[in-house]
Automatic annotation (TrEMBL):
Family: Belongs to the class-I aminoacyl-tRNA synthetase family.
Name listed for the protein in its UniProt record: Tryptophan--tRNA ligase
UniProt function note: Catalyzes the attachment of tryptophan to tRNA(Trp).
Species this chain originates from: Salipiger aestuarii
A GO term for molecular function: ATP binding
Top-level taxon: Bacteria
Amino-acid positions noted as binding L-tryptophan in the UniProt annotation, renumbered to this chain: D134
EC number(s) recorded for this UniProt protein: 6.1.1.2
Quaternary structure and interacting proteins, as annotated: Homodimer.
Keywords per UniProt: Aminoacyl-tRNA synthetase, ATP-binding, Cytoplasm, Ligase, Nucleotide-binding, Protein biosynthesis
Chain sites annotated for binding ATP: Q9, P10, S11, G17, N18, G146, E147, D148, V186, K195, M196, S197, K198, S199
InterPro entries, per database record: aa-tRNA-synth_I_CS, aa-tRNA-synth_Ic, Rossmann-like_a/b/a_fold, Trp-tRNA-ligase, Trp-tRNA-ligase_bac-type, Trp-tRNA_synthetase
Pfam families cross-referenced by the UniProt entry: tRNA-synt_1b
GO CC entries: cytosol
Length: 333
């Protein structure tokens, strides 16, 4: 049976990019004979500095976001990474399989480490090996991610292939990234060439899942665009990144294709299109943010859900680590 794994870092508040590129798609994959395992990857989050109180709050808030968006903890396994130590155990083995040359090609490390890479943590550099362990400790077959994570899923396959080759086994599967829909790369509202990100210093660049209706409407009204009205058809969006981004967001929120959306709004000036988008965003996001707030009033319930999920995750992960140790030649396994 197909098994889906994916995760999100509790490294800040959730953005519309995380919702449309990840959570909404995770929820849509539940059921229909697929096993779904979703994680709050707190060990990834600490690859850059996190204040401990903020990390606790963000972990619970992200869990509340998953639940509020429709993730059902009885149909999916939902947990935080640090509570399943098998992720770290397998990551060490993979640190010894992955090559420095592979890590040096990772664009996310270059982006996040910036100019002064000497000051970046060793964890940030090794991040993709931990991500490979997150996926392969469940023998996951499919990983829904945004476009930005494609390279890391490819590295996961390289690690699985090298492990299988070195130890003459077929133990680890070749996992496929699942990158589909209109919102695999939601862009900043201030700069159509940058991805919308939790950690962008400008709050106006993103819609936070906790923003109220006024804030959402204001950010969309102020979103950067060119002066032309929307083109008549999809082809006309080609060299207009800001227009394309807003249309993609509309499509992902409404569940229509981009072509359908263009049939409805093609030719409209932004002064008309932006209020439509703002209304749609408020209609879709307000119920989720109020449900998130409701979950946040009961942190003990959130912790209970995470703990239950961690127990179920370990039941799958533990035999995989034992078997890996045995293959590698560790006595006692
Ligand atoms: N802008 C985006 N559009 C579509 N998908 C996105 N994702 C993130 N941003 C967008 C997807 O969300 C999932 C979780 O991402 P993450 O939190 O693990 O890390 P990230 O990609 O580094 O996200 P951020 O928001 O940019 O966080 P910071 O600012 O901390 O680096 C992934 O599937 C990702 O593709």
């Amino acid at each position: 049976t197909p098994r889906v794994f994916s995760g999100i870092q509790p490294s800040g508040g959730l953005t519309l990019g995380n919702y449309l590129g990840a959570i909404k798609r995770f929820v849509d994959m539940q059921g229909s004979g697929i096993e779904t395992i979703y994680c709050v990857v707190d060990m990834h989050a600490i690859t850059v500095w996190q204040d401990p109180d903020a990390l606790r709050r963000q972990t619970r808030e992200l869990t509340a976001g998953y639940l509020a968006a429709g993730l059902d903890p009885t149909r999916s396994i939902l947990f935080n990474q640090s509570q399943v130590p098998e992720h770290a155990q397998l990551a060490w083995i993979f640190n010894c399989v992955a090559r420095l040359g592979w890590m040096n090609r990772m664009t996310q490390f270059k982006d996040k480490a910036g100019k002064n890479a000497e000051k970046a943590s060793l964890g940030l550099y090794a991040y993709p090996a931990l991500m490979a362990a997150d996926i392969l400790v469940y023998h996951a077959t499919h990983v829904p991610v945004g476009e930005d994570q494609k390279q890391h899923v490819e590295l996961t396959r390289d690690i699985a292939a090298k492990f299988n080759h070195d130890f003459k086994t077929d133990f680890f599967p070749m996992t496929a990234p699942v990158i589909e829909g209109a919102a695999t790369r939601v862009m900043s509202l201030r700069d159509g060439s940058k991805k919308m990100s939790k950690s962008d210093p400008s709050d106006a660049s993103r819609i936070n899942m906790t923003d109220d209706a006024d804030a959402i409407a204001k950010k969309i009204r102020k979103a950067k665009t060119d002066p032309e009205p929307l083109p008549e058809s999809v082809e006309g969006l080609k060299d207009r990144p800001e227009a394309r981004n807003l249309v993609n967001i509309y499509a992902a929120l409404s569940g229509d294709t981009v072509a359908d959306v263009m049939a409805q709004v093609g030719g409209k000036p932004f002064g008309e299109f932006k209020p439509l988008l703002a209304d749609l965003a408020v209609e879709k996001l307000a119920p989720i943010s109020s449900e998130m707030a409701r979950y946040m009033r009961d942190p003990a319930e959130i912790d209970r859900i995470l703990k239950d999920g961690a127990g179920r995750a370990r039941a799958i992960a533990s035999p995989v680590v034992q078997k890996t140790y045995e293959i590698v030649g560790m006595v006692g396994a």
